[in-house]
Design goal:
heterodimer, A: about 290 residues, rod-shaped, B: about 100 residues, Arc Repressor Mutant, subunit A, three-stranded antiparallel β-sheet, about 15% strand, elongated
């Protein structure tokens, strides 16, 4: 493959900017050298190899004519197709990656939604389970307060007092069990939440540090994105966890807050206004008296 | 041997080789290779450069075997240039040797 013709052709293409007579002179000399080496017992390939790097050789020849060596490089011919194909390949692979990325994003979004729904369902079920466990305390309370007085009085009249006492005791026990279950459940949630909260805070701290280093020019973008991901993950887990917290039944609170709102609001609005007026009037009067 | 060393003295060796008698390219390469192990590719560009600077003249002479060969002949300017290079070389190597001796003591 690397025979004399190949070598002379390659060399000629690199010194093509010289005069034809000069080119022929140079090529004839190299051809003769190769011929003499072959006569001496070498193959053409070996003889060519002894010339060393072809580009360097052409550069040195051109240097003898005080020509910039860059003119000797076969730049214009082979290069244009190469970057073109490269660019095409890059755009194609880029498009593939983009498509794959969007598909992955869609998949993960669905997965996340599914997991979130699952968690919500689980949470609801768990809540339902715990509610069912202690129905004596919770659900009857608001109903019985309205309806109880009639049957209670009836039962007190009809049945013996031991039963009513037992019932009360059972109800108190149920309420206590419910309280204990809620306490334990929330405690367990809290214990589960603590490591995630710590991890999230650590991730945010790391993110801050990495952001500073990133601005200074360290190649830490990947790790920073990982930190963002970790922080978001922890936030998500904590959000899910917070939806599982077993709160006090809301129905009990509403009347209290309503009462609280009804009663203090008018007094509050009355008091400061009248106070202010009284004080200012008194102050003015006093000032007037002083004068 | 260090490639930079070779490159520096190659010119002097080529000029000196041609001074004694006219030579053609291949012969000259063989002659220079006896003194320093040099890449053959670098000698032809050097010959071309020295010819362009009129330190060499070339002429073709028929050979008993194969095509006519291009012979290199040292011009008067080439002789002067060779002498200058030799003086430079002497001074240079004396200075380097002296420095190396001083450092050893």
């Amino acid at each position: 493959m690397r025979n004399k013709e190949w070598f002379l052709k390659e060399l000629q293409s690199r010194i093509a900017l010289l005069e034809d007579a000069e080119q022929q002179d140079i090529l004839a000399e190299y051809a003769q050298h190769i011929d003499l080496r072959v006569d001496g017992g070498l193959t053409e390939e070996d003889a060519i190899r002894d010339f060393g790097d072809l580009d360097q050789l052409a550069a040195e020849i051109l240097e003898a004519y005080h020509v910039k060596p860059a003119f000797g490089q076969k730049a214009p011919k082979p290069r244009p197709p190469f970057p073109d194909t490269l660019r095409k390949g890059c755009t194609k692979t880029g498009a593939c990656f983009r498509r794959a990325g969007s598909a992955a994003a869609r998949f993960f979004r669905r997965l996340r939604l599914g997991i979130a729904n699952g968690f919500h369902k689980c949470g609801d079920k768990l809540k339902g389970l715990f509610r069912r466990k202690a129905p004596e305390g919770e659900t009857p309370l608001p109903e019985k307060r309205e309806e109880a007085p009639i049957p209670m009085t009836a039962s007190q009249e009809n049945h013996c007092p031991v039963r009513t006492a037992l019932k009360r005791a059972f109800r108190a026990l149920g309420r206590f069990c419910k309280l204990l279950a809620r306490l334990l459940w929330n405690l367990a949630l809290l214990i589960c939440a603590v490591p995630f909260a710590c991890l999230g805070l650590a991730a945010i701290l790391c993110l801050g540090l990495l952001a500073v280093l990133l601005v200074q020019g360290y190649p830490l973008a990947g790790i920073a994105i990982c930190c963002v991901g970790a922080a978001l993950f922890c936030a998500g887990v904590l959000g899910l966890g917070s939806s599982l917290v077993w709160r006090r039944p809301v129905s009990v609170h509403i009347p209290k807050t309503a009462e609280a709102e009804e009663s203090p609001v008018p007094t509050f609005t009355e008091d400061p206004a009248t106070d202010l007026i009284c004080r200012t009037v008194q102050g003015e009067e006093e000032e007037a008296h002083h004068e | 041997m260090n490639a930079q060393f070779k490159k520096g003295v190659l010119e002097l060796i080529v000029l000196e080789s041609v001074r004694k008698r006219d030579m053609y390219g291949y012969e000259l390469v063989a002659e220079v290779s006896k003194v320093v192990d040099v890449n053959e590719g670098t000698i032809y560009p050097l010959l071309k450069r020295l010819t362009n600077e009129h330190f060499f003249e070339t002429y073709l002479r028929e050979s008993s075997e194969g095509p006519p060969r291009k012979y290199y002949h040292l011009t008067a300017a080439g002789v002067l240039y060779r002498d200058r290079l030799e003086a430079d070389w002497d001074l240079f190597q004396q200075q380097v040797n002296r420095f190396l001796k001083e450092q050893k003591q």
